[in-house]
Amino acid sequence: MAGKPAVVLVHGFWGGAAHWANVIVELKKRGFDDLHAVENPLTSLADDGERTRKMLRQIDGPVVLVGHSYGGAVITEAGDLPNVAALVCIAAFAPDAGESPGQISQEKPPAAFDAIVPDSDGYLWIKQDAFHESFAQDLTPEEALVMAVTQKAPLGSTFGDTITAPAWRAKPCWYQVSTADRMIHPANERRMAQRMNPRKTIELDAGHASLASQPVPVTDLIEAAADEAGAA
Known about the structure:
The chain has 9 helices and 8 strands. The protein is of the alpha/beta class and about 230 residues long.
């Protein structure tokens, strides 16, 4: 299917690129052949933004850049490259200039805020026995167990890293709200979505891991962005 743009998927805190597994399979079924998933170090917004830019620079042609959770902050920071044609936020942070994910979370704390614990090296983890109910309550216990055990902890300082120039102020964007999100307050998601002035916002009755639990409507939104980017 000629004319489909590349899709670059950016994961958030407590997970890696494999969190996109179900969306990747769904995109492939729909004829998206140029698929990429960034594996970010989660050591700082600058590091993660640069890792994402490096991947974007390897791609010829337009890109739909998709971020889940903290990945939304990454695409907000890194999405200013000329080949980025659209931004898609999936239950994601989309901070404005000078804002950080931590600041947004403190203003309206999510339900599972107390499930996040630091270790002695400064990394933040979701307690394994609270992961299912906190991050992925609409997945099976087995699926959530794998996510809990393989979670990728961010450096705590990354929460405080602020956006310089938000790409969503210059690029067309789309947003998916998870109405049962316990990691980002749904009211924060709605507020961030509204100020982005997205081409489309959808709300799903889903937890934070909507990319895993509801890959079909999530892919529908990515495809809508791709259709517009391809037409442009």
